[in-house]
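Retry 2 of 3 after timeout on previous attempt. Resubmitting structure tokens to design endpoint.
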């Protein structure tokens, strides 16, 4: 009996070169929180996946060897004790933080959902720069729910419920 064929799931980012979304990068550089949220609702993010050592076994010489390892998303604990999920706008920003981390591309809505599932209170974007940003709890929930951000005539921003939400 042949083993089942192994296939990677379609991610929807087949032509992605790892570059940051220009609108999101500019909003982060400008420190414009509303523009960051507006760009996030349309942007692809990279979530770092890192290897976590599971069980260790020792050989007859007492040397340790990995027995199992798992892949996990990276969380950062703030000084206030809250956890935040790390996400990056592109591979360059991810490599600044950790050249060993593997990028997992995802729409911001899915990243926000993962943050909630991991018990994170926030999402930290591009933690190692060049320009970082923090998406706080209420905005993480709105992103996960599929809400969109629009720019108002007065230059401000507002959340609206998405038609496909």
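Retry 2 succeeded. Sequence:
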């Amino acid at each position: 009996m042949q083993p089942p064929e192994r296939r990677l799931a379609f991610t929807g980012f087949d032509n992605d070169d790892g570059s940051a979304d220009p609108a999101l990068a500019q909003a982060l550089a400008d420190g414009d929180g509303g523009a960051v949220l507006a760009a996030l609702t349309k942007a692809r993010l990279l979530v770092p996946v890192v290897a976590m050592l599971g069980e260790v076994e020792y050989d007859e010489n007492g040397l340790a060897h990995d027995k199992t390892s798992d892949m996990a998303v990276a969380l950062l604990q703030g000084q206030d004790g809250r956890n935040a999920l790390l996400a990056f706008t592109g591979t360059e920003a991810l490599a600044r933080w950790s050249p060993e981390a593997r990028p997992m591309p995802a729409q911001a809505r899915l990243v926000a959902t993962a943050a909630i599932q991991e018990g994170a209170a926030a999402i930290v974007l591009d933690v190692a720069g060049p320009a970082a940003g923090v998406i706080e709890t209420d905005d993480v929930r709105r992103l996960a729910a599929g809400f969109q951000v629009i720019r108002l005539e007065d230059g401000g921003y507002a959340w609206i419920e998405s038609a496909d939400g």
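Attempt log closed. The mean pLDDT is 87.
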